[in-house]
Amino acid sequence: MTDSRLVADGDQVRRRRQCANCQERFTTYETAELVMPRVVKSDGSRESFNEAKLRAGMLRALEKRPVSAEAIEAAVERIRQTLRARGDREINARDIGESVMRALKTLDHVAYIRFASVYRKFQDLDEFRAEIDRLSQEPSQEPSQGPSK
C-alpha cells in the first residue's frame, strides 16, 4: 500500500496500492459494513431497522411545513448515527420514537405536535393543550428550519 486516507464524507477509506508482481498501481475504496440494531416493538416482536419507515414518519409529520429536504435528511442521518453509536444489538421502538420527537421539536413545533399526537395516542383536545403548554413552557428554542424546500 502506498497511500491511505479518509474520503471527504468520512465513511470510506481510499487506498492506493501497488501490485508486488507487475508494479501496477490501483485504488481501492473500503467501507465498513455497519449493522443497525434490531427494533423491538411494543408487542415484543422484532424487525430489522428500516430507515425508510423512520423517514416516512417524519415526512408525514412535516407535510406542508416549511422545512427543507436537507434539514429532514440531516435529522434522519443524526438519528441513524445515534442509534448505531449506542452499540446495542436491539433497541426499543419507543427509543426511536423519542429520538424522532426530539428531532422534530428542533425542526418544527407543528410537526412535533402532529407526531406526538399519533405517537402518544392523544384522545382529546386536553391532551393536545397539555403538550402545547409543555412545549411553550420550555426555554425559547425556535425551530431551526433551514432553507425552504
From TrEMBL:
GO terms for biological process: negative regulation of DNA-templated transcription. The keyword NAD does not apply. The keyword Zinc-finger applies. InterPro entries: ATP-cone_dom (IPR005144), NrdR-like_N (IPR055173), RNR_NrdR-like (IPR003796). Keywords: ATP-binding, DNA-binding, Metal-binding, Nucleotide-binding, Repressor, Transcription, Transcription regulation, Zinc, Zinc-finger. Residues 37-127 form the ATP-cone domain. One of its GO terms (molecular function) is ATP binding. Negatively regulates transcription of bacterial ribonucleotide reductase nrd genes and operons by binding to NrdR-boxes. Belongs to the NrdR family. This is Transcriptional repressor NrdR. The gene is nrdR.
